[in-house]
């Protein structure tokens, strides 16, 4: 079949590279930069949690979470699993598993970092069904859970609202429903890096 007036092979390859590797370039810049932390406010029906995201250490995991938050994917979802002394988990529309998705549709690979551990209350980490099966479910610890180190990607920590986390733990014991009303994205360094890359491309094209 002739190419006619369509896109040439080299052009198609260039565009595929742009789509596939733009994220990686943004991630690389964030890892090397000074402003690699993201921030969100998780508004629940009993108060809000301020969370710092380790975009500089787990960029793809944070990107997945931030994109889903910006799409309002998490808004209205239940904390479907709340275990006192352990954690509260959310991110699945069905509350039963299997209905969740990632920002890109498939699975997100683990980003295990030895410097990020489940060593305290307020650690934010990904739920999974095994190696490299991350999608949209995540949890916050009520206490240290070192047995999860090495198998679950830690990507953030609660930096404000620990008293709300304590209340979530006690409310969960009573069986009262807990929900994520919305997630407000306050700082998204990954989006900022992408926008800077886009500006640089436009400026280079204008020269």
From TrEMBL:
Enzyme Commission number(s) of this protein: 5.2.1.8
GO molecular function ontology, one term from the record: peptidyl-prolyl cis-trans isomerase activity
Main EC class the enzyme belongs to: isomerase
GO biological process, any: protein polyubiquitination
Gene3D superfamilies documented for this protein: Cyclophilin-like
InterPro entries hit by this protein: Cyclophilin-like_dom_sf, Cyclophilin-type_PPIase_dom, Cyclophilin_A-like
SUPFAM superfamilies: Cyclophilin-like
Keyword Translocase appears in the UniProt entry: no
Record-annotated PPIase cyclophilin-type domain positions: 44-192
Keyword Isomerase tagged: yes
Keywords: Isomerase, Rotamase
GO cellular component terms listed in the entry, alphabetical order: catalytic step 2 spliceosome
Signal peptide: none
Catalysed conversion reaction: [protein]-peptidylproline (omega=180) = [protein]-peptidylproline (omega=0)
Similarity field: Belongs to the cyclophilin-type PPIase family.
Function statement: PPIases accelerate the folding of proteins. It catalyzes the cis-trans isomerization of proline imidic peptide bonds in oligopeptides.
PANTHER family according to UniProt: PEPTIDYL-PROLYL CIS-TRANS ISOMERASE-RELATED (PTHR45625), RING-TYPE E3 UBIQUITIN-PROTEIN LIGASE PPIL2 (PTHR45625:SF1)
Name of the protein described by the UniProt record: Peptidyl-prolyl cis-trans isomerase
Higher taxonomy: Eukaryota, Rhodophyta, Florideophyceae, Rhodymeniophycidae, Gigartinales
């Amino acid at each position: 079949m002739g190419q006619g007036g369509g896109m040439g092979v080299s052009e198609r390859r260039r565009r595929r590279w742009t789509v596939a590797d733009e994220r990686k370039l943004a991630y690389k810049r964030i890892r090397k930069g000074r402003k690699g932390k993201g921030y969100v406010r998780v508004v629940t029906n009993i108060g809000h949690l301020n969370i710092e995201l380790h975009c500089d250490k787990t960029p793809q995991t944070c990107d997945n979470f931030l994109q889903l938050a910006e799409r309002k994917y998490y808004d209205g979802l239940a904390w479907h699993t709340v275990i006192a002394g352990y954690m509260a988990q959310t991110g699945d529309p069905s509350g039963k598993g299997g209905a969740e998705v990632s920002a890109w549709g498939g699975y997100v690979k683990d980003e295990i970092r030895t410097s990020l551990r489940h060593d305290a209350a307020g650690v934010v980490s990904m739920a999974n069904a095994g190696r490299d099966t991350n999608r949209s479910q995540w949890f916050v610890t009520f206490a240290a859970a070192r047995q999860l180190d090495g198998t679950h990607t830690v990507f953030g920590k609660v930096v404000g609202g620990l008293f709300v986390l304590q209340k979530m733990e006690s409310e969960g014991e009573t069986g009262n429903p807990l929900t994520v009303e919305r997630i407000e994205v306050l700082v998204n360094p990954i989006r900022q890096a992408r926008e800077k890359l886009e500006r640089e491309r436009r400026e280079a094209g204008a020269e």
